[in-house]
Specification:
By secondary structure, the chain is an alpha/beta fold. The protein contains ten helices and 14 strands. The protein has two domains: about 15-370, Rossmann fold (3-Layer(aba) Sandwich); about 390-440. It has a seven-stranded parallel sheet, with helices on both faces. Strand 11 and strand 12 (about 295-300) form a beta hairpin. Helix 4 (about 140-150) packs parallel to helix 7 and helix 5 packs parallel to helix 6. The protein is elongated, with a radius of gyration of 33 Å. It holds the Pfam family Peptidase_S8.
């Protein structure tokens, strides 16, 4: 299993030890005026020296132990937010009322853009005590949660896709004693999914995977599907290491997410396969970290998945009657489809389109209580007259009446003109050779 937390490692054959995965040219035009103005401002205004000095640093490639607090802040709007334009639908919904389970390393509830009370206590499934999971040593879960639901904050253009959604942190991975990347088993992933369902999540993000199928993990995903919960999973980062099928991403009910770069191209590390549902920004994306108010930059399918989880939260908030299966179908149908046959092995149905996902009404959803536009009945045409002189009289009247009106108007003008001259002949202007006008 590949890790976005640190160096890539593959478990020994037969081992159940799994490492957490670590981590266009298309644009929907149905955006609000305020969103368009915001995008244009960020596009044309020069970056101030202060903002340039505050460019977030990349996450450590060989992190040991707890992630330090970020020391820099994203002053502008990150490319992923400019690409997806989530604020175009915020006048309709910001995801309020939807709980998103983040099955990961925990989420730091004290992080500035997540500190407004929307991070629940959560649950740590790695220990018998089942402690809360609203803190985060390694930082991976906090980074993921920020992409989903970070609130807007003065001094930065970064915010989450669904900034009013509630985060339910489920810790299923912890740092090891020697400081190496967090390790979890398929059992802990399954327990994490079940705990998120039981905790009230309507959307679950799990940025972890294994290339070894596991019955318990499959049953946990099925439990979520029966409970009408949308499960979003990272496709994994092993495209250059044999491109194996990964789980839980490849289970049929799961939305498997790959990564694209700023140019809209599939990231070279992003997993491919028939199971890939969608792609989202996953190279150099911005989010928050624990124990600080700044930002980090991260790459990986782990960080592409939460963009889709945030979009799913917006859809569930705005279309509460849709089932989990319908939410998945909507996200796929409204994506920016690639110029290939879909689903494409590398891009799935295409790049998630937040605006279209929320605002489009699919024909098959009309039976689920969605509004249906119906045509107003036109008035019946007048009955035809087949006999008599009626049609001829109508045509004659249509011709004669305008003529009579014109003649009446002309005679009235002549009458008023004659009275003004006291019925004397009208004067005539003659042009002499000297080009002077003389009245005659």
């Amino acid at each position: 299993m590949d890790s976005e937390f640190g160096a890539r490692r593959r478990p020994a054959r037969g081992s159940e030890g799994l490492l957490v995965t670590g981590g266009s040219r298309y644009r929907n035009t149905a955006v609000s005026t305020s969103s368009l103005v915001t995008a244009l401002i960020w596009a044309v205004l020069p970056v101030s020296p202060a903002s340039a000095q505050q460019t977030p640093a990349p996450l450590p490639s060989n992190q040991k132990g707890c992630l330090p607090a970020p020391t820099s802040t994203e002053g502008g709007m990150p490319w992923a937010q400019r690409r997806l334009v989530p604020d175009s639908v915020w006048p309709l919904t910001k995801g309020a009322g939807v709980i998103v389970g983040v099955v990961d390393t925990g989420v730091d509830a004290g992080t500035a853009q997540l500190s407004d009370g929307r991070v629940m206590r959560g649950l740590d499934v790695t220990t018998p005590e089942r402690k809360p999971a609203d803190d985060d040593c390694f930082g991976h879960g906090t980074f993921v949660a920020g992409i989903i639901a970070a609130s807007a904050r003065q001094g930065t253009g970064f915010s989450g896709i669904a900034p009013e959604a509630t985060i339910l942190p489920i810790r299923c991975a912890v740092a090891t004693q020697d400081g190496s990347p967090p390790v979890l088993t398929s059992v802990e992933m399954a327990n994490g999914i079940r705990a998120a369902v039981d905790g009230g999540a309507r959307v679950i993000n799990i940025s972890a995977s294994t290339s070894v199928p596991d019955q318990g993990l499959a049953e946990a995903v099925e439990y979520a599907a029966r409970s009408d919960v949308v499960v979003v999973a990272s496709a994994a980062n092993s495209a250059l290491q044999g491109d194996p099928v990964t789980y839980p991403a490849s289970y049929p009910s799961v939305i498997a997410v790959g990564a694209i770069d700023e140019a809209g191209k599939k990231a070279d590390f992003s997993q491919t396969g028939e199971f890939v549902s969608l792609v989202a920004p996953g190279v150099g994306v911005t989010s928050v970290g624990p124990r600080g108010a700044g930002h980090w930059l991260g790459s990986g399918t782990s960080y592409a998945a939460p963009f889709v989880a945030g979009a799913a939260a917006l859809v569930r908030a705005y279309h509460p009657s849709l089932s989990a299966g319908q939410v998945k179908r909507r996200l796929e149908a409204t994506a920016d489809h690639p110029a290939t046959k879909v689903p494409d092995p590398g891009l799935g149905w295409g790049t998630v389109n937040v605006t279209a996902a929320v605002t489009t009404i699919l024909p098959e959803e009309s039976a689920a209580g969605m509004p249906v536009v119906t045509a107003e009945l036109a008035p019946l045409p007048p009955a035809k007259q087949t006999e008599g002189a009626g049609p001829l009289l109508a045509v004659g009247a249509a011709t004669v009446v305008p003529v009579l009106v014109f003649l009446t108007f002309l005679m009235s003008r002549l009458y008023r003109s004659g009275r003004r001259r006291r019925w004397q002949p009208a004067r005539v202007a003659e042009i002499s050779s000297g080009r002077d006008l003389k009245a005659q």
